[in-house]
Design goal:
By secondary structure, this protein is mostly beta strands. Among the domains are: 9-56, Beta Barrel (OB fold (Dihydrolipoamide Acetyltransferase, E2P)); 68-150, OB fold (Dihydrolipoamide Acetyltransferase, E2P) (Beta Barrel). The protein is 0% helix and 36% strand. It has no helices and 16 strands. It has strands at 9-10, 15-18, 23-24, 28-31, 34-37, 41-45, 51-56, 68-76, 80-88, 100-104, 125-132, 137-140, 147-150, 161-162, 167-168, 175-176. The N and C termini lie far apart (57 Å).
């Protein structure tokens, strides 16, 4: 049986406890006063409400408000950047369906933004926060920790390095402006956002 403060790996159908002990939560079901696991995962008991949950192993990432995500910029318009959501930040697992999200010009950075073309370019990989998840996904990169984490030169497609004020292409010397994250250049292991140099 599960207890508050402990966790164990369970399989679908495993007995977790009784309805007298726990409140059935996510990943569980109740049958004749007994609570069972509905999926394979790790149990979690909330000490505040005694709800027992099962957190799935290899769960499909679900995008919710305030979540951090990696997104690829597909198109930069006058008022918004259209992006494809690639992965959840915490797990770096691919988000199924490649949902579309947008960054409005007012949410690109703190202060006035004259042109989104000075902040993002197609192909950039962003670390962004979800402002709205339904019915459409709206993103922000206003926080200094958020913004472009990987970008390629618009002239030769070389991977840009972060300079003192601009991004610099070590291949052709081109300099470009972006709204970069403080963690620019640290992106690894995200499909569609590899920072390994490629020749085209």
């Amino acid at each position: 049986m599960s207890e508050a403060g402990t966790t164990r790996l369970v399989l679908p159908g495993d007995l977790l406890g009784t309805a007298e002990e726990f409140v059935p939560g996510w990943g569980t079901y109740e049958d004749h006063g007994k609570i069972y696991a509905a999926l394979m995962g790790h149990t979690n008991v909330s000490p505040s409400d005694h709800a027992i949950r099962v957190n799935a192993v290899n769960a499909i990432p679900r995008i919710g408000e305030q979540d951090l995500v990696y997104a690829r910029v597909d198109e930069v318009k006058s008022a918004m950047a259209v992006c494809t959501i690639l992965a959840a930040y915490d797990s770096r697992r691919v988000v199924p369906g490649a949902p579309e999200g947008t960054v409005h010009i007012s949410k690109a950075k703190d202060g006035y933004t004259d042109s989104l073309a000075d902040e993002f370019a197609p192909g950039d990989i962003l670390l962004a926060q979800v402002l709205q998840s339904h019915p459409t996904i709206k993103l922000t990169t206003q926080n200094p920790d958020l913004g472009v984490v990987s970008a390629r030169c618009q002239a030769c497609h070389g991977l840009l390095s972060k300079g003192s004020k601009e991004l610099v292409c070590p291949r052709c010397g081109n300099r470009e402006r972006r709204k970069t994250s403080q963690g620019y250049g640290a992106l690894k292991g995200v499909r569609g956002g590899s920072d390994e140099p490629r020749d085209h």
